[in-house]
Design a protein that fits this description.
Blueprint lengths: L1 H16 L21 H4 L3 E7 L5 E2 L7 E8 L13 E2 L26 E5 L22 E7 L4 E8 L9 E9 L27 H7 L6 E7 L5
Keywords: Signal
Protein name: EF-hand domain-containing protein
InterPro entries: EF_Hand_1_Ca_BS
């Protein structure tokens, strides 16, 4: 039921945003908050689930219009510690950083979820603001909000509808998602890079590079196909 509700909400966002796309480089970080959490204590204290796309899906229309839908659960009673700064409903052009739930829209770390990294293995390196497969796409997410808060954890859902064929058409790609560890020991998951570099010098940007940086969650991956056929 939750997944269906999120999909319907995301369709509402699609109608509101129209499907155009304009990227700008960069990404903001959340301001430091209270508390200090040791990196080793925080290890794997976050659970990330990719709700969409599913493995093997043939998603989208002409390289665009496909969804990334995430459920992120923090084993933390402090909302500030998750890195989440505010709800957002955002998108390109006129929808960027506007009421009622403003959020910036660009490549890089998300100003609303600054610990999140989202990669696709086929991200185009020739588009303005993009650096190929290492580009953190998290700040392109349109809809972010808190779906559950209990005495033990905080659950946040994050959704993106891709408005342009930034990762190609008629191509199989790997979606890679993780929350970066508390690298600066400020007690907040807000240390995601704008671009993930080839940490192990193997010529690829993948889960091993995120693990080398340091992650608070498991690195989740989904292989799927981006449909190139028109509507």
């Amino acid at each position: 039921m939750k997944k269906m509700t999120t999909a319907l909400t995301a369709l509402t966002v699609t109608a509101a945003l129209g499907g155009t796309y304009a990227a700008t480089a960069g990404g903001a970080s959340a301001a430091p908050g209270p508390g200090h959490r040791d990196r080793h204590d925080a290890a794997k204290s976050v659970d990330v689930e990719i709700l969409a796309p599913a493995r093997g899906d043939n998603a989208g229309i002409a390289g665009a219009g496909w969804f990334v839908d995430l459920e992120i659960e923090f084993n933390d009673t402090s909302l500030a510690g998750t890195g989440f700064t505010a709800n957002q409903l955002t998108g390109p052009a006129a929808h960027n950083n506007t009421a009622p739930f403003p959020g910036s829209f660009s490549t890089g770390a998300d100003d609303r979820m600054p610990g999140l990294v989202v990669l696709t293995s086929t991200t185009n390196s020739t588009l303005p603001g993009f650096s190929g497969p290492g580009t953190n796409l998290a700040n392109l997410f349109n809809l972010t909000g808190v779906t559950d808060r209990s005495k033990n954890d905080v659950e946040i859902w994050d959704t993106w509808i891709v408005g342009a064929p930034i990762a190609g058409k008629d191509v199989t790609t790997t979606l890679t998602v993780a929350v970066i560890d508390d690298l600066n020991h400020d007690g907040i998951y807000n240390d995601a890079p704008a671009v993930v570099t080839d940490q192990n010098a193997d010529g690829r940007i993948d889960r091993r590079d995120l693990e080398a940086i340091g992650v608070a969650s498991k690195v989740e991956t989904v292989d799927f196909r981006i449909n190139g056929a028109p509507a």
